[in-house]
What we know:
The protein has one domain. It is built from 13 helices and two strands, in the order H-H-H-H-H-H-E-E-H-H-H-H-H-H-H. It is mostly helical. Helix 1 (20-32) crosses helix 11, helix 2 (37-52) crosses helix 6 (113-128) and helix 9 (187-201) runs antiparallel to helix 11. The chain has a two-stranded antiparallel sheet. The protein has helices at residues 20-32, 37-52, 61-67, 71-81, 89-109, 113-128, 148-152, 164-179, 187-201, 203-206, 210-225, 231-239, 243-258, and strands spanning 130-132, 138-140.
Amino acid sequence: MTENEKHLLPPGFTQEWYETGHINTTLIIARLAGVQDHLAQQIAIYCQLPDYFKMTYSAGTPLWAWISGKGKDAEVISKILHGFHGGAQAEVERRQRFFRDLVRDQIMRQEDVWKIGFTVHAFGDSYAHTFLDEAGQRSAYGYPMGHGLDFLFCVKPDHISKHPDLYMDYCAALFWALCGEKAQDSVEFAGFEGGFRAVRMHRNYVQGTAGEKESIVSDFIIRGSCDRTKHADMKAAMAALDYDEVIGFLEGVGAQLTR
């Protein structure tokens, strides 16, 4: 985002913290789905936490966990929360349906907001942490390397501009999970989808480099989220979590997955 564009941002908007695929996307879709603003903000914050506090619940946890004697926790965090299970397309799709339905169930039961947020994170990563194999099938990155090697070679699998259709599939699925209605029946969702498509048809996007394309897409999502989250908000949410309770929750989700 250029300096000249910043004056166009909504009042109170801050770039103190954002991440397009999780917190910003969650905010957009939650509001389109009619989720109350405060709840939408809390879900989005807890959705972002696994990637915000490195070496606690992040995908980079394995090294820290093995050093501290919590290797089992590292595997649970990576495979369940970040989707690094290494499965083929059938398993990828099964997990996407599983997390979609789990978020829907949590919303209806008014589950603890941190659990909803963590589940939305796992739901998002069930899409983002996949790749097309040699047969053209969508498979998941595996544990413990995840997409680390791809990042070394600048593949950047988390970049939305590289997988725009996959991203919109996730947005539509998240919309249903949050409100129980089909995204294609929502005028509001159609507006977001149309805007996303229009951005990708603009000459600046079409003619841009890979980095420029990601920046353009990110700016569109960041603006749409109107996020006002601060570092202090993230830290307060993190402080409210109990590590053992989080691990227990993830283990319980893993048990459901294996059934």
